Amino acid sequence: MAIWIDVPTWPAHGRLWSHVISDTSLTELHAFADRAGIPRRSFEGDHYDVPAERHTDVVAAGAVLTHGTDLARRLRDSGLRFRKRKGERPLGRYADALVAVGGPHRLDVIASPLEPPARSGASVVLITDGGHIVLVRNLTRPGWAPPGGKREEGESVRVAAVREIAEETGLRLDQAALIPVGYERITIAPGQQVPPWDEGDNHIAVFAAHVAQRPPVCAQDGDDDVVEAQWVTWEEAKVRCGDQPWWSLVEHFLGSLTR
After folding, report:
1. What class does CATH assign to 89-258?
2. Segments making up each domain of the chain, as ranges
């Protein structure tokens, strides 16, 4: 077991940076970062970014110095690598976190301004007037959540999103009004059978949509799964949903509104 750091050669924001990883576990990595005074905001899903001026301190705290190629190899071999596209930000990784999956899986939560992965099979939408959000209670999902559901054959993820919104809330939105917030990546290990989820990566896209007012919301005739739909404040939504892994996407979205 070891903590590793590479030479600060990576330029960003007018500085040079190193990467700090564990070859064993994220728990070990976070514990080391706390001891070394590396802030949690520097965590990038599978490593911490450390500026050049702190490099000596981190090595003195116990990180083993290596070169970038070796560090990348160790991260890959550890199984801890967090895949993401440029501009995306990892928000969390969880084991068997979604009851609805019904079997072993890994859940990655990723904030992203990009269009969701092409294989996204479902979507949820944060419909807000600025101070409130629409939540629905669905027989097929535990607790409260934003409206959403699976794509139908031939649908794009945006078309599926506006259809699900209409079915579950009665609101009619233009798909062009959907703002990418991020996605959940549900990974089923090779050889595991967790139908209807596919082996490998499954994606749940998350969008946001702004409305000027709070029109009434209710499930439409034919959607027997939705028990009720409500506008609630962000504070009340956190009480109902703050312990769910996807809530970190909400927090990230709200933070973007104030920046």
Report:
1. alpha beta
2. 3-78, 89-258
